[in-house]
Design goal:
The complex is a heterodimer of chains A (178) and B (210). Chain A has 178 residues and is mostly helical. Chain A has helices at 3-9, 12-21, 23-26, 35-51, 62-68, 80-97, 104-116, 123-139, 145-148, 165-176, and one strand spanning 54-56. Chain A is globular, with a radius of gyration of 19 Å. Chain B has 210 residues and is mainly alpha-helical. In chain B, α2 packs across α3 (63-89), α3 (63-89) packs parallel to α5 (140-159) and α7 packs across α8 (197-209). Classes of the chains: A mainly alpha (178), B mainly alpha (210). Chain A binds chain B through residues 1-4, 6-7, 10, 49, 53-61, 64, 92, 95-96, 100, 103-105, and chain B through 2, 5-6, 9, 12-13, 16-17, 20, 23-32, 36.
């Protein structure tokens, strides 16, 4: 067993229990994880860590992700586990992409806000567009997130015109007068 | 060392937490490797495994206490090495030896950037000027401590003698001594006792013991 494996295995059971104990809070949003789900999350987390060549200590990021996305309108019990697995994969990917300049909380805040906002729950859009653009700005020296904590940041970099006045009036005209 | 890693985990975890200012639960493998090596190096310093010093820890000491002791020893060694370097800067001339001048600049860089807590195993600089003391196999402050003290002894010896005489002797030993990565005391010994290997070695041993 190598040093890396020892680190991954440390506190495994304790962590499984703490993941399941998140149900106390998330159950009110209709989201519950079983003990098997906790193991699956850990395994996929370890895989993500290996893929992205990272090492995690202490409580890990799973609990923070679970709580941050617990009240999401785009997550249901049927896709809860898959979404969490995808979220932690995206998290570690962009932790690296940001060269560790973003703290866990800043990155999660940004992810959660976009997931609920412009992404409408679309993981592809979150990772392929929102995070790509934001993290590229961070790498280039942008540090506004230090003050905002990662909240309200995407609007500064969004390349898509979210509100088109002319289009709105055209549609309104079509609906009401034509 | 791997069997010890599990015992080191709480220390590595705490160190990582300080390294990230508590902002991140994970670090890159490269950073994790650096921090694990930092902890191992610090404990080795406490165990006296480095620089040939005697074992300082006892069997009843916890690994956390060993780490704390090692950290204190590294800090003390760094202070000692810096004091020696400051004294070295006041020791006469460099005899226009370019590698010596460059190594002194590198040492200054070391003291500006050496990281006692997160990277004590890395001495950061390449010191091209060879000293008499054996430094191979040592890293971090252990390497620098030996290097600086050896350099101080060597230059102090040369500077006790009239500079003109030293320069003449160095030129006898090796006329291109200014531009070659060679030790000045070795050249001085060669210039003082040409073709007398035993006497040269005796002189160098005397310098080392001074």
């Amino acid at each position: 067993m190598d040093a890396y494996q020892i680190m991954l295995n440390a506190g495994k059971e304790k962590e499984q229990k703490s993941i399941v104990s998140c149900n106390d809070i998330t159950a009110q949003f209709g989201l519950v994880l079983s003990a098997e789900d906790a193991i699956a999350l850990q395994e996929s987390r370890n895989e993500s860590l290996r893929t992205h060549q990272r090492v995690e200590f202490g409580a890990g990021i799973l609990e923070k992700l679970i709580y941050a996305f617990a009240d999401s309108q785009y997550i249901n019990q049927s896709d809860y586990l898959d979404t969490l697995i995808a979220l932690q994969e995206v998290f570690y990917l962009f932790k690296n992409e940001s060269m560790d300049l973003l703290s866990d909380d800043e990155l999660i805040s940004f992810m959660e806000e976009q997931f609920e906002g412009v992404c409408y729950g679309d993981m592809e859009y979150l990772s392929g567009t929102c995070l790509e653009i934001f993290v590229a700005a961070v790498r280039a020296g942008y540090d506004g997130y230090l003050e905002s904590g990662g909240k309200g940041e995407y609007g500064k970099f969004d390349e898509v015109k979210r509100w088109d006045k002319d289009l709105y009036f055209q549609v309104l005209k079509e609906l009401c007068w034509e | 060392m791997y069997e010890k890693i599990e015992a080191l985990l709480p220390i590595v975890e705490e160190l990582t937490n300080r390294y990230t200012s508590g902002d991140s639960t994970s670090v890159s493998q490269e950073t994790a490797k650096q921090l694990v090596e930092a902890v191992i190096y610090t404990i080795k310093v406490a165990e006296g495994q480095l620089a040939g010093s005697q074992t300082l820890i006892n069997n009843h000491m916890t690994i956390g206490a060993q780490y704390a002791l090692g950290k204190r020893l590294i800090q003390e060694k760094t202070k000692e090495a810096l004091a020696c370097f400051n004294a070295l800067c006041n020791v006469g001339t460099n005899y226009e030896q370019i590698y010596l001048k460059q190594s002194k600049k590198e040492l200054l860089h070391f003291f500006n950037y050496y990281d006692v807590e997160y990277n004590p195993q890395d001495h950061l600089v390449f010191l091209d000027y060879p000293v008499l003391a054996k430094v191979s196999g040592f890293t971090g402050i252990e390497y620098i401590w030996i290097y600086v003290h050896s350099l101080y002894r060597e230059l102090s010896f040369l500077n006790q003698l009239p500079q003109e005489q030293v320069v003449k002797t160095l030129e006898v030993g090796e006329k291109d001594y200014r531009t070659l990565p060679i030790n000045l005391c070795t050249v001085f010994a060669q210039g003082t006792f040409p073709d007398e290997q035993a006497k040269q070695e005796k002189l160098l041993a005397m310098i080392m013991e001074a």
